[in-house]
Structures are given as structure tokens and as C-alpha cells.
Amino acid sequence: MKDTIISIKNVTKRFPGITANDDISLDIQQGEIFALLGENGAGKSVLMSMLFGLYEPDEGDIWIKGQRVKEYSPRQAARMGVGMVHQHFKLVENYTIAQNIVLGMEPITKGLGFLPLVNISESEKTIEDFSKRYQLNVNPRDRIEHVNVATRQKVEILKMLYKEADILIFDEPTAILTPQEIQYLLGIIRELRENGKTIILVSHKLEEIKEVADRCGILNRGRLVDVKEVATTSTREMANLMVGREVMLDVNKPTPTFGKVILEVENLHVKNQDQITMVKDVSFTIRSGEIFAIAGVSGNGQTEIAEAITGLKKTASGTVRLNQVDITDLPVRQRNLEGIAYIPEDRQTYGLILDDPVADNLVLKQYFQEPFSSPGGRLNPEAFHHYAERLITTYDIRSNKGANSITRSLSGGNQQKMIIAREIEQDTPLIIFVQPTRGLDVGAIENTWQQILQEQQKGKAILLISLELDEIMALADTIGVIYNGELLTVEAASQLTAMEIGAYMMGVKEDE
Q1: Which residues in 132-150 are b (16+ Cβ under 10 Å) and which e?
Q2: I want to staple 392 with a disulfide (CB 3.0 to 4.6 A). Which of 108, 397, 444, 500 is the partner?
């Protein structure tokens, strides 16, 4: 029997209008991978934030290594050996990897015998040693602004290891990673356990939990409903406990009826900021009532295609037509008014204004129109509020203060629900979904898939860009597979197997 390293006893945490955690009691054993499951807004991150010292319980106690926590702060948590990788990274963009890792505990030497100087070279060597030991493979001299998402995650892990944490909390660690990056991260988590670390994995990705976790605790609307041995519990049972009902992800997709061509993309070329061509001579059409999916490994040009259609990125050459209107050179707002809705890949950078209320974010596409604004340009906050409350109810957006909640305070999954609600409500002929279920729990994925299919039944043309092959196979009528900026094939979904799509995604062409 392993020793108990964390004991959470009758913990309750309330915020105005909501009980985030309700009388939770839970023990975590030393050296295990313990998964904490729950829907978006179920209280997972709040519970872990108390363990990390960001919040203090309103009721109950937390014990770590046999000591009751009396002072709740991240500094005290670090002293007790607790580290946390947050869902949204907390890094300084213009600092190097080493500077981010040692921030707040920089090694000091004496210059000229008395001047305190930061010895960053010593830190870089220590970080290189940690990086090699745990196979994280980062260059401590690289600036954060120049590295990809997967490397940023490694930096967050190294921050914990540098501070000698032996209890490591991962909050939704795979929400923004590609499938290949996910497998790499799960390997790192196993390696950390083999090195004696205790891992708490906050997630709603059940297949990943089955792959690495020993036990799981399941939250539903703030209450702990069960603790299960992962090896003897099916993913379906976990999903049903999370959501509180039977969850069905087997899509009953009716036979589609296609109408006129809504979107025409012809000979599209797009370059990045370094003038490297990311999209090469791409052409395709999407009809009314059709779900056209682009499959591919992250970074092969699919995001640039979406941004060129929406106007966020300028085309190098080629034509984009919407309902036979050439929109290639139109500004973003004009394209929106012509009939484009867009769920972006990065919800926080491009989808939302995080420090504004939910109500303001939900009317970003129409605040300048009646009834949200008068002909003279005067805004109508009451109309904002009523509209937002309707969308909050319809799309099950969970927040502590409803329409008045600051968007940053919502969980990542509920932020995604906000964007989907705002864009679908535009009632446009074309909807572009880029990674629509990234960061969503199993119940929210089910709802999002149903919403996409409902929009298809209304005759909308839908462009779906996803890294989740299961999602593409479940929803798409037509699939284009992209590799290195080129569409290698465009076929009816019924004519492609997952294995064939996977081969195209790796750059294998038919004649090879």
C-alpha cells in the first residue's frame, strides 16, 4: 500500500453565484498518476488551484505530506513540493527559456566582489542537465516568442523540476497539442512517475486517461461523484459519470443534400511573415449543405487557408469567392457581413477579448447594428445583456456572474462555447470551424458535433479544419488532405479510409 501524499478533507470553495467545489474529500497516493475528470466548469481547475495555493478553501482542509496547509500561496505550495502546469501557459514572451524557468529564484553571484549579479549561464547549464535527464530537449537560450506550443509546455514542466517539485499538477495539458505532441507528453509523464514524482492529471480526454492514469476522481458540477481504478473502468462509464447521463458519440449522420456552390477557393497561395509559401495552389469548393473537412498534421497550411478566407491573412495570389462575389481583397468586417462565421484555432488570441465581460464578447460581430446600437451609434448595454443571457442558456455556457462575468474567469471549454455560440448565431451561409472541440469535454464535444450537423441541415456550407481524425471521419462529407501546403487529394468521405488519410497526411501520394 502506497503512502498518502495529499489528503483533501471536506473542501468547499464558493464564488459569487456559484459553488465551484462542494464538500470534496479525496486522497492521492505517492508515486501514482491520478486523473481528475469532469465537464468544463465542473470545478477541476479550482480544486487544483487550491492545492497550488492560488485559492484558499472556504471550508475544509488540505494536507500535503502529512502537514495541514495553513498558508495558501504558490510560494508556500512550492516549498511543500507542489508544481503546476496551467492550461494557459504563464510565460514571459521576450525572455529566454532559462530566464522564464529561474524567474523569482535567480542564482546570484558577486561582481567586483560586492555587486549582486544574476548568473544566468549557471542556470542554463542546470536546465540543460534537467532537459537531458527527462528527455525534454530544449535550448535554454531560445526566446519564448520564437518557440512552438509543445516547447512552451516543456518549459512549464522544467519550471517545476527546477523548483524541485515532487507533486506535479498538469491542468488540461493536451488541449492545444497535436496528436504526435500528445503522445510525446504522455511519455514524459510516465518518465516522471518512474523518477518518483506524483502526477495529478486534470483532463477530460478519456483515452489519454486510460493510457497513463492509475486512478481517477470524477467531478460533476462541483461534487466528487466517484473514484475509480482506471484499468477496470471503461471510457463510457467515465463519460457517463462526468456528464451525469448516457453520452453518445456515435454520430447518426443523415444523407446530405447539396445545393449551390457557396465558397470557391481557386489557385490560392499564402505566405507567412517570413515570406515562406505556406499554401501552394490550393483549389476547392463547398456547396450548401456540405461539410468539407481539411485533414493534416498541424503546421501544414490549414490555418493559413482559413485566415486567407476570413481576411486575417493576405493572399499572395489566387481568388476567394463567396456566393459568386469576389471577396479576395475585402476587409474582415465586410467579409463577415457578406456571410462568413469563423471559429478560430486560438480562442484566446483571436476569438475573445479576455478582460471584457461575456456580454461584450458575444456581440463582437454585431455591436454596431440594431438593437445593440442606435442609428446614431449609441450602444445599448441592456440589449447586450438580454442577448448574452439567451446564448448562455442555449449553449450551456457556465460562468459565475452570467453575462457580467469577465471572460478570462471562464474555463477554456466555456470560452470555446462562447465563440461557437456567437458565430452560429450570425446565421451566415458559410461557417468555418477550426479545431472546434479543442479543450472541450466529452459532453460538450457531443453537443458541438450535433450543432455542426444541425447547421448542415439548415443548408449551411461548412469548412471543418481539425487535427482529430475521428472528428473528420464522423462529420465530413468531403475530405481534402493537406501536406506541406498542398491538397494531395480531395475525395468523398465515403471513398477514404482512416489509413489512407493518414498516409496522405504523411505526404504519401497515390502514385507512390
Answers
A1: eebebebebeeebeebeeb
A2: 397
Distance CA 371, CA 387 (A): 10
Contact 291, 462 (CB under 8 A): yes
Residues 155 and 20: their CA atoms lie apart, in Å, by 29
358, 404 contact by CB (below 8 A): yes
Strands (E), 139-193: 167-171
The CATH class given to the 261-355+425-505 domain equals alpha beta
Closest CA to 209 of 163, 252, 241: 241
Domain ranges, ordered by start, for the chain: 4-243, 261-355+425-505, 357-405
For 307-318, the pLDDT digits (tens) are 999 999 999 999
Distance CA 418, CA 399 (A): 11
Q: Tell me which H or E stretch contains 309.
A: helix 302-310
- List, in sequence order, every residue forming a beta bridge with 169; answer none if it has no partner: 84, 200
DSSP string across 259-300? -SEEEEEEEEEEE-TT--EEEEEEEEEEETT-EEEEE--TTS
C-beta atoms surrounding 28 within 10 Å: 23
* CATH architecture of the domain with range 4-243: 3-Layer(aba) Sandwich (3.40)
pTM score over 0.90: no
Question: What are the residues facing 486 on neighbouring strands?
Answer: 483
4-243 with 261-355+425-505: one CATH topology? yes
Residue 465 β-bridge partners: 294, 434
Paired strand residues for 293: 464, 479
Question: pLDDT tens for residues 456-480?
Answer: 999 999 999 998 888 899 999 999 9
In sequence order, what are the residues at sequence separation of 6 or more whose Cβ sits closer than 8 angstroms to the Cβ of residue 487? 282, 283, 284, 294, 480, 481
User: What pairs with residue 171 in β-bridges?
Assistant: 202
115 pLDDT above the threshold of 70: no
Residues 350, 348: Cα–Cα separation, whole Å: 6
Task: Indicate if the alpha-carbon torsion angle 250, 251, 255, 258 is positive or negative.
Answer: negative
Of 230 and 85, which is predicted with more confidence? 230
Element (H, E) at 450: helix 442-457
CA neighbor of 98 nearest in space, from 77, 128, 133, 75? 128
What's the residue count for the chain? 512
CA–CA separation, 300 and 306 (whole Å) = 12
